Amino acid sequence: MPKRFFKLTDDVYLSGRWELGHPLDQEGRKLDDPWQFRIGQRVHADERIRIPIKISGTPLDYSHAAFSIPVVHARVASLFTEVAPDDVQLIPVEIDSQPAQHFILNAIRLVKCIDDAACEEVRYWTPEDGMPEKVGTYSSVSGMRINPAKVEGSKVFRTSGWTVALIVSEELKEVLGRAGITGTKFTEVTGPNSINGS
Question: Phi/psi class of residue 191: alpha, beta or left (left: φ > 0; alpha: ψ in -120 to 50)?
């Protein structure tokens, strides 16, 4: 049976939930490069990172700070470490008014596996867009589908060329579900696409 994978996102529709802000350094300045946690490689985080609460509400086990940076409670961090120890880097962060330990969840694997033909819609940057450095790369991927045969054993990864997507294995999805982790939303990226049936 083919392996199933899911895009993991923050469930933004949970009512009464908190919203996290822009990661800050020890002096309270916004981090220069918040994108570093979304490119599928290990980062060097020497100093303590603080994440402010932008909108107060119920804390979640899994949520996104600004720039869709995944932030997880220690319970979630331990599950990722248990199931996919070679696929993630956990960077300790302090969240305002939260005594519990939290981490930025940095997926350190980058996998070239997007199945363009099976996706709902894929667009590429063109010379007409006026950004020559991006020509030929993805400008959008809707209804993403991946080829699981190209994943090569990774259980957590970013998709090469479209690193906004954080992908997890079915095994990890089930582990998080059994543990009652709050804040997660899963969208399958394997199997037929509901739009075009491919």
Answer: left
